[in-house]
Each structure stands twice: as C-alpha cells, then as structure tokens.
Amino acid sequence: MKNFITALIIFFMSINAFSQPTINPAYTVCTTTQYYFSWVSFINSVTGYVVDNSPSDPYKYYFKKTTNGGTTWSTSYLDGSRAQVIFFDEIYGISTNAITSSPSTIGKTTNGGLNWTPLGVTNLAQSITFINDSVGFFANAGGFQVGHNPNNQIYRTTDRGNTWSVILQGYNTDYTVFHNIEFINANTGFISGYAQHVTNPPTTVLDSTEYLKTTNGGTNWTKIFVPEPYTGNRLTTYGLLKFFNANTGYVQTYVNDQHYIMKTTNGGTNWNLQKDLGTTYFNYWQFLDTNKIWGYSLSYILKSSNAFETITKENVYDTLDTYTGGKIFNDGTAYILSNKWKKLYKTTVVTNIPVLISSQIPDKFNLSQNYPNPFNPSTKINYDLPFDSKVSIKIFDVTGIEVASLVNNVQVAGYYSVNFNASNLSSGVYFYRIETNNFIETKRMVLVK
Fold first, then answer.
1. What mean pLDDT do residues 342-346 have?
2. Which among 70, 98, 209, 270 could bridge 116 via Cys, Cβ 3.0 to 4.6 Å?
3. Distances from the Cα of 17 to the Cαs of 6, 32, 315, 339, 345, in angstroms?
4. How many Å separate Cα 159 from the centre of its chain?
C-alpha cells in the first residue's frame, strides 16, 4: 500500500510538471492579467501601457502604465476599451475606440490615459497612422449591408487628432472593410481591405482583396491589383502591407489557406513573389529595416533577417501560445502579449538595427558625424541613401582591426540612423566606415569611459 501511494504521488506530480510549460530563458514576465489583455502600447523601450479586462465585468478595464520597462506598474480603473492607441509622449495619446457605448468613438488623452475625451468620430476605426506629430489618417470598418456601404471611410487630421475630416466615403457598392492604412508622406498612402460582393437577396458572397493607393493626400484613390503568384488570378482576401517609399513595398495575402509575401518596386504596378509562406502567416509585423522583420502569428513569434527569405519561429514557452500584441524597439527590447497564459513578456531580440527615419529621397549620399561624440557607451550614426543600395557600415580601431559590423544588407533609399553600443570596448579612438555601390566614407569618433 505504501508503494502504491508513493507511485500515485509521483504520477500526479509528473502530470502537474507537464501541465506547467517551461518558459524560454530569454523572456521575462512583466505583468499578468486575470481575464485577458485588450492591447499594449509602448512609446519607447521603457515606457508603455497595457489594458486588461476586469474578471468580474468584461466591459470594465484596468489601465496600467510602466516607466521602467515593466518592473513596476501604476493602475487605474476605466470604463472603456482600446482598439489601437498611439501615444506621442507620456501624456498625449489617440485611441481608435475610447468609449464602450455604441457607436464606438475615437478619443484622446492628455494625462497618460487616465481619462479619455471623445472626439466626435463615431465609427469603429480599424487602423490609424501618423506621419508626423500633426498629420494622421485612420480607416474605419464600415458596416455590413447589401448594396451601397456609405460607412467605409478614411479620415484625416492635421491638428494631432483633435479634429478629423472624411477624405474617402462609400468607396464602392460592396461591403468593404479597410484593415490597414499606411501613409509614407502627406501625399502618398496605401490601404488594404476586404470586400464581400453580396447579391440582393444576399444568397451569394464572393470575397476579394481591395488595395487602394493615393498620391494626392486622399483626394483620389486608385485600385491596385495584386495577382496570385502562380495563376495570376486576384488574391482573395486582405493582408498586411508595408511601404518604405512611393515605389518599394510588401503585402501579405492569401488564397485557399496559402499565404504569400508579394513585393513591388514600382508603387504597386507590378508584383513579384517574395516568399511563399504556406500555412504560416503574420498577424502583425514590424520592419526594423528593409531586411529585418519581427512579428507574430497566433502561435509563433516570427523573425527574418533577410527580407523573408528565411523565417524562424519561436515561442515564449515550450508549448504553442496565442499572441495578440507586441512591439520591438531599436535597442532590441521587445514586448509580446500572450492571451493564452495572460502575461506580458519582455525580451532582447537584436541590436544595432538601422532605422529608416524618413522615406523622403535624399539628394546625395551622406555619412553624418556620430552623436554624441565623445560617447559612453552608445552613440548614433546617421546616413543618407539617394537610391537603393547595398550598404556596409563597420567599426575599426586605430590599428585597422574591425571590431563591429553594424549594417550589411541592401536598403531602399531614405534617411537612416543606427546605434552603436561600445560597452564591450575600451576607451580610445575608433573609425566608422560606410561603403555603398557608389559611395565610401570614413569618420572618426572617440569612446571615453
């Protein structure tokens, strides 16, 4: 009997051990929720916000803020949800769904999210983007109806979100939902959406992709055709999109459960297959530069360092997860939400990521003096590319020995910035050198510890 009881204890302990997943040591838990997280928003690698639902009332929310990378959080109790939030600084933010009453309302906060003021736009926004501190755009979801749908709208603000004007309304005679909107400057923007062509009476539904482009700030829009890579037929549902400038961009889309990354280099006129993803797909992606991508699907964290040629999968735990939000920063700090395990995680993914700080096209190649200089231990190096080019930036000591490689890939035209962390180097004089297809330059910098 004693041996039988001992065996039972060991058996149940083993079940409990297997039921508790093992966390990847690269990740740490920042905060937890009892119900599920509504969203996460970070303005830098240490200051961020999450909203989680009250376990007793799904229409009540806790708003949490951290200023030290998730070590501690301040909490307030709110009546409202947040579909998507953009914070300009620690106190001023715009939310695409600030009020839980019907209809949903865009709102703003001037006290770091403690209170939200409705802004009079009463359509549920699906995507919002700002090209600077003043000018922004958002697309709303519209509403299902047979025939003309006047509610699929695009809005623009020129005063930091205080007022909004409609620049596109009632796009077509179908049920169209705009999902992703991106403007690379005040004039050129792209939208992806999802249309259902419905008969009257509604007995037949055919899905199709809607991609739109404007070159005059939203006054006029043209449809972009993205073909299925093997048959040339139209792809049949919406996807993510990313444009680096008016010419070069990617879209993710799929047909019959097969997912594709398509690339254009002429503003959407022609598209080529960049990656056949199969059944894997991105629910969210963030481009760290033109080659490095970080994102997640429902079950995996996804990474690529070579413009989708190879994609690696990763999990926080040794089991499949359910990821619903995330953000990564130039210093390599990344946050990821898990609604399966009801936690926000933090990790360090990559360092020395060149950031495209402007998609405007420079007149010439340029390598700026690092700032600050002297520095300890980090400094920033800016450089300009007037056209697409292979770029190499390396660091050398005074003897000519290479001590670091910051950039080594093809980048589209634009203004860039890359951080250099010399915490593992000793004080002294160093040189940084840029090489492109048509430009070489070297500059001097000083590390003082």
1. 88
2. 98
3. 16, 21, 19, 21, 22
4. 24
